[in-house]
Amino acid sequence: MRYHMDSAIYASMLYDFYGALLSESQRAVMALYHEDNLSLSEIAEELGQTRQAVHYTLKKAEAALEEYEKKLRLLTTYEDNQEMAEKAAEIVRSSNLGEKEAYELLSIIKKLAE
Predict the structure, then answer these.
(1) Which fold would CATH assign to domain 7-72?
(2) pTM for the full model?
(3) Which of 2, 22, 37, 81 gives 20 to 30 Å between its CA and that of 108?
């Protein structure tokens, strides 16, 4: 994994980018697990499913999200843009620009990174 984050954060970020592409049941499980921080047993109880069914749905959803990322690379591009924006901001901060120009450039960089 290219990312410097734990797998739960990685899965949550993938869900943010690609969650709309999942089935309704996969979105429900992902949201309860990653956003509401419910355990598999709690999700199973809430959805009226077995814990094993919830686990299977979660793993299928996470695999689908990783497949979307391999093909579309939205998260990778987002992270690359964040890194470039930070480098550009550092250059602006260390330059001899006037305060007004530096502020304007940093504002532009921040907007581009969003």
Answers:
(1) Arc Repressor Mutant, subunit A (1.10.10)
(2) 0.78
(3) 2
Q: How many CB atoms lie within 10 A of CB 32?
A: 20
CB 22 within 8 A of CB 63: no
Cα–Cα dist 102/88, whole Å: 11
> How do the domains of the chain map onto residue ranges?
7-72, 78-113
CA-CA distance, 5 to 3, in Å (whole number)?
Answer: 6
Of 53, 30, 59, 25, nearest in space to 41 by CA = 53
12-35, pLDDT tens digit by residue? 999 999 999 999 999 999 999 999
